[in-house]
Amino acid sequence: MSNSRRGNYQNSYRGHARGGRNPNHRQQHQQPIIANQSAFGPQDGGFDTSGWGNYTNYYPVSQQIFNNQPRGNDARPRSNYQNNQSRQQTSNNTVLACDEYLSEEQVLKDIADKKTIRGVLRINAKQYTDAFISDPDSGSDFFIDNVRERNRALNLDEVAAQIKPKRQWKIIPEFTNLVEQCIRDLRNEKTSSAEKEGEKLTDTNVPKSSPSKRDNKRETLNTLNAQNINLSDEMIDKIPDQYFQRTVKVVFLFRRRHSMKAAGLIRKMPDNNPNFALFSPMDSRIPRLMIPIENCPENFKDRPSDYEKSLFVARIVDIPADKKFAKGELMENLGDADTVEAQ
User: Fold this and answer.
1) Contact predicate 25/14, CB 8 Å
2) Superkingdom, according to UniProt (predicted)?
3) Helix/strand/coil for 99
4) Which of 235, 258, 281 is the last residue of a domain?
5) I need a surface site. Which of 113, 283, 286, 288 has the fewest CB within 10 A?
């Protein structure tokens, strides 16, 4: 009786957990019913598993495979845990490397040719991605809009910065409409109206210093050019310079004026790397640091939550060109960050 039921179950069942149909049911029909089946043992959990042949993700547990859909000819199935770990490592370790510094000889030549400027880097305390360098000729500030193009320079460092092409300059927000009109005129080969607007500009309405607050995200000619007009350098030169804030990128470090020290908090690494702790400075203008676990308090590795409110002083040891975090070392524990003494 029991064998008959098992045979009927095996041959008549057509269900499938996902597709609604068992893809191997034809093969099952062709298989003869085995009358003398072996007794069920502990390996089967005491159950008849003969009808479970297509439920590879059901039993035994040790054979479960997640995400077992291959991608590509040579793809191998990986578990969700492995996928998450690889994605985490990629996001934590992969960064776009900074450019190598130019030689001092080349930099001095470019400064003489007005292709590069020399000045003190000022990083916006409220928006750490924004930095400025004063114009040596007393014009408006030069602008750097991302950390990578600061090229490892810190606040108040003396640097050399290469002037970018005009098409990569940032359009001053209040002149956006005028630049759009210029682009339309250039498309129609009519630049007279743009030139007249440019003549009306005086030194009084051109910003001489950096705004204290970040304006709306600034466009460049490439991003503003919605009509995808092929703007040659000659055409771009016809748009008045006063409509733009010139942009630069750091290519050389003359003098490190920053103290290379900062106060901040330590945490576990985002990727749970057991060999380092992450130091987050209170000043957002300073990069986060990887601190060797041997340099941390003795029980930090086992009880990191005990130090969530402890304020430390750390020193920057190195800022690699191709790493997400700088390298540092702890110097002093100032105590509870909420106390006046620590602050």
Assistant:
1) yes
2) Eukaryota
3) coil
4) 258
5) 113
Radius of gyration of the chain (CA): 33
150 and 241 part of one domain? yes
What's the structural domain count of the chain? 3
Do residues 196 and 267 share a domain? Answer: no
Pinpoint the alpha helices (H) of the chain: 2-12, 25-30, 80-93, 104-112, 176-187, 192-200, 221-224, 233-237
Are 109 and 242 part of one and the same domain? yes
To the nearest 10 degrees (0 to 180), the angle between helices 192-200 and 176-187 is: 150
Domain that holds residue 332: 261-336
Cβ contacts of 106 within 8 Å, gap of 6 or more = none
pTM, to two decimals: 0.64
**How many Å apart are CA 139 and CA 206, to the nearest integer?**
9
Domain assignment of residue 80, yes or no: no
CB atoms closer than 10 angstroms to residue 161: 26
Question: Is residue 342 in a domain?
Answer: no
Distance CA 43, CA 171 (A): 72
Q: Is residue 156 part of a domain?
A: yes
Residue type (1 letter), 289: L
| Token pair of 246 as six digits | 């010139």
Q: Which of 210, 338, 209, 241 is nearest to 282 (CA)?
A: 338
The residues of the chain scoring below 50 in pLDDT are 1-2, 4-19, 27-70, 72-73, 75, 78-79, 81, 86-91, 190-191, 193-194, 200-215
Residue that finishes a domain, picked among 258, 284, 307: 258
Q: 258 Cβ partners below 8 Å, 6+ apart?
A: 154, 155, 156, 157
Residue owning tokens 């089967």:
44
What SS3 class is residue 121?
Answer: strand
CA 151 to chain centre: 16
Judgement on whether residues 240 and 269 belong to the same structural domain of the protein: no
